[in-house]
Amino acid sequence: SYATSLNDLAILSMKMGAFEKAEPLHLEAKAIRAEVLGEKHTDYAHSLNNLAILYDDMGSFEKAEPLYLEAKAIRTEVLGEKHPDYATSLNSLAALYSNMGSFEKAEPMSLEAKAVRGEVLGKNHPDYATSLNNLANLYDNTGFFEKAEPLHLEAKAIRSEVLGGKRPDYATSLNNLAMLYDNMGSFEK
């Protein structure tokens, strides 16, 4: 429980942009979970993933990648490849590889995350919409606009239906569509 509190405080610090405060909190939570729960526990994998997100946000990709990979390996072994947490690991790695400019590594992970979430959570779930959105952003960033648009539109429709039109994720979908249309030169859209 203490490690969970540390984790939550670290996430709050990250959202406030206080990365220097977040890192020691994540490291302490990770150490506690390793000692108390062991390094094959899903909560330990969660700590690895959160620390990797911090490093990813800081641009320390070389620190983030091994943590994401270890979290994915634990989740694969403990939960299997048909679990939402496994899809989260795929999604996180895809985002990292996209940030690093390794689009050839990012695309298959994004596609697999979308497939797992669609199968396990259903195609009307906010996490499935997130996978659609992330894959669309990947295609947008690589100039495959014709692949990006239907994914953005589907993510927007799911978010509108499931979350409502006043939620930040829905606004993100609108913003991403606007950026796509700008990139396409479709300024009227």
Helix content: over 70%
Which blocks of ≥5 consecutive residues have pLDDT under 50? none
Mean pLDDT comes to 96
Give the overall shape, derived from the CA principal axes: globular
The rounded distance between the terminal residues' Cα atoms is 49 Å
Given the helix and strand composition, which structural class is it? mainly alpha
Number of strands: 0
Percent in strands: under 5%
Q: Could you give a short account of the major beta sheet?
A: none
Task: Spell the H/E element sequence.
Answer: HHHHHHHHH
- Structural Rg: 17 Å
| Number of discrete helical segments | 9
Summarize the model shown:
By secondary structure, the chain is mainly α. The termini are far apart. It has nine helices and no strands.
Explain this structure to me?
The chain has helices spanning 2-15, 19-36, 42-58, 61-79, 84-100, 103-120, 126-141, 145-163, 168-184. Helix 4 (61-79) runs antiparallel to helix 5 (84-100). It is mostly helical. 41% of the residues are buried.
Question: What order do the helices and strands come in, and which of them pair?
Answer:
Layout: H1 2-15, H2 19-36, H3 42-58, H4 61-79, H5 84-100, H6 103-120, H7 126-141, H8 145-163, H9 168-184
Helix pairs in contact: 1-2, 2-3, 3-4, 4-5, 5-6, 6-7, 7-8, 7-9, 8-9
Relevant terms:
9 helices, 82% helix, mainly alpha, single chain, 189 residues
